């Protein structure tokens, strides 16, 4: 088994090749932000001079360890690379004193995580909106809620006294998130404000099927595109209800 090592900026082309091989949305800015957030938590396995498998482990401001970017190039799968990186990621987070580790699992990843002690928390869905205009009214005020994930690569922010929402670019669609709001009405206004700025782009929004965010997504023309499973290892913690959009599958 080849040894793992921490990723560096020179690995970005390989990291992006991994994302494209799986059809994922992340760009170089996303990898850059993960590395900046937790340099020793971003690891990979190199074969013949090129990284072929990755995993990232960060600790979010709520103290939850988050594993993401679990990827192996198709031609290198089934050799235990992802399992090895996952075990190392869990070890890294545990030595940092983290009591809760979470991740958003695809169907391919789910069996690996289950073997390593992760259990179901809740389904989480990716919804997609095709390009098109969106009515939005100007907002005012500064949201006073706690902003999590200061490290994520945010490109546009809309906020009011009641809501804060951000979006960033992606390979397949612009990504909405995070969004925190005191009410569904204020969340809808903020998300509308983001979409209205990019009417020519499709959007992704990752949300929990039972959350009020779904009703907003329907009104704004989003449709469910795929379903993942949020899984947890260790102490179970709830997602705060004011989270109308997560920060990303790789950030939580
Ligand atoms: C999920 C993924 C990362 C697994 O990577 P991997 O390096 O092949 O994983 P491993 O080699 O550690 O395999 C883990 C287990 O899955 C099995 N497995 C891996 N690939 C398989 C395949 N193509 N068919 C059947 N079983 C497979 C292995 O036998 C192993 O089982 P074991 O522990 O009982 O021996 C990889 O399939 C991938 O990149 N998928 C696309 C991206 C994705 O969905 N990532 C997960 C995000 S949550």
For the biggest sheet, the summary is: 12 strands, mixed
Architecture of the largest domain, according to CATH? 3-Layer(aba) Sandwich
Uncertain regions spanning at least 5 consecutive residues? none
Q: State mean pLDDT (0 to 100 scale).
A: 96
The total count of helices amounts to 6
Structural class by secondary-structure content: alpha+beta
Give the terminus-to-terminus CA distance.
Answer: 30 Å
What does this structure look like?
- 25% of the residues lie in helices and 33% in strands.
- The chain has 252 residues and is an alpha+beta fold.
- The protein has two domains: 4-122, Gcn5-related N-acetyltransferase (GNAT) (Aminopeptidase), CATH 3.40.630; 125-245, 3-Layer(aba) Sandwich (Aminopeptidase), CATH 3.40.630.
- Strands 1, 2, 3, 4, 5, 6, 7, 8, 9, 10, 11 and 12 form a twelve-stranded mixed beta sheet that branches.
- Helix 5 (184-196) links the parallel strand 9 and strand 10.
- The two termini are 30 Å apart.
- The mean pLDDT is 96.
- The structure holds coenzyme A.
- Coenzyme A is lined by residues 22, 53, 70-72, 77-83, 105-106, 108-109, 112, 115.
Brief summary of the model shown:
This protein has 252 residues and is an alpha+beta fold.
Summarize the topology.
Blueprint: E1 4-6, H1 12-22, H2 28-37, E2 42-47, E3 50-59, E4 65-72, H3 81-95, E5 100-105, H4 110-115, E6 119-129, E7 156-159, E8 163-168, E9 174-181, H5 184-196, E10 203-207, H6 213-219, E11 223-234, E12 243-245
Residues 22, 53, 70-72, 77-83, 105-106, 108-109, 112, 115 line the site of coenzyme A.
């Amino acid at each position: 088994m080849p040894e793992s090592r921490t990723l560096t900026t020179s690995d970005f082309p390989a990291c992006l090749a991994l994302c494209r091989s799986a059809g994922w949305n992340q760009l170089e800015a996303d990898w850059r932000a993960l590395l900046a957030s937790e340099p020793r938590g971003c690891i990979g396995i190199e074969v013949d001079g090129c990284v072929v498998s990755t995993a990232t482990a960060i600790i979010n401001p709520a103290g939850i360890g988050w594993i993401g970017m679990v990827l192996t190039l198709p031609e290198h799968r089934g050799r235990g690379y992802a399992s090895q990186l996952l075990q190392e990621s869990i070890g890294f987070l545990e030595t940092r004193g983290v009591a809760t580790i979470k991740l958003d699992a695809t169907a391919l990843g789910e069996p690996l995580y289950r073997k390593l002690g992760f259990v179901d928390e809740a389904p989480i869905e990716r919804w997609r909106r095709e390009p098109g205009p969106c009515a939005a009214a100007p907002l005012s005020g500064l949201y006073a809620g706690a902003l999590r994930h200061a490290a994520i690569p945010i490109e546009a922010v809309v906020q009011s006294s009641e809501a804060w929402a951000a979006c960033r670019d992606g390979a397949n669609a612009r990504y909405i998130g995070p969004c925190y709001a005191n009410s569904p009405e204020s969340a809808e206004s903020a998300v509308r404000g983001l979409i209205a700025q990019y009417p020519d782009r499709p959007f992704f929004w990752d949300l929990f099927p039972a959350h009020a965010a779904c009703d907003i997504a329907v009104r704004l023309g989003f449709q469910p595109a795929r379903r993942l499973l949020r899984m947890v290892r260790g102490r179970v913690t709830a997602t705060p209800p004011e989270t109308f959009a997560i920060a990303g599958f790789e950030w939580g």
